[in-house]
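Translate structure to sequence.
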């Protein structure tokens, strides 16, 4: 698989983490099998007892739906932006030299940011 193909799989897998409840059950299954479990179209077709072409068509419809949802809602884009902002704040706070009286507050602020950055929500860390 090409690097572009792998990136496409990863990107759609990430989008599905946000929007899976808005996909059909079939689309959710196909995305999970193809993007998360890395099965080929033929393997999925065999597992679901449908044609390889049906897998491809349904997967493309799922991709279109994910693109449509992200274009309207921008949840994934907002998540990436917020994660970057959290990481920047953490880096800046780590550079602060706190006085004895403010060291506890600085540590609490850094811990709160670390919790936001390091929290593992889904299987991909979302």
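Result:
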């Amino acid at each position: 698989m090409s690097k572009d193909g792998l990136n496409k799989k990863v990107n759609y897998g990430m989008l599905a983490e946000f929007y899976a409840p808005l996909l059909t059950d079939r689309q959710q299954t196909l995305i999970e099998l193809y993007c998360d479990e890395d099965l080929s179209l033929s393997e999925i077709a065999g597992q679901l007892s449908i044609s390889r072409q049906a897998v491809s068509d349904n997967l493309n419809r799922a991709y279109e739906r994910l693109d449509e949802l992200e274009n309207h809602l921008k949840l994934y884009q907002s998540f990436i932006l917020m994660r970057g902002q959290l990481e920047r704040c953490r880096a800046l706070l780590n550079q602060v030299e706190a006085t004895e009286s403010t060291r506890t507050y600085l540590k609490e602020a850094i811990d709160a940011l670390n919790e936001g950055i390091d929290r593992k929500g889904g299987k991909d860390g979302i």
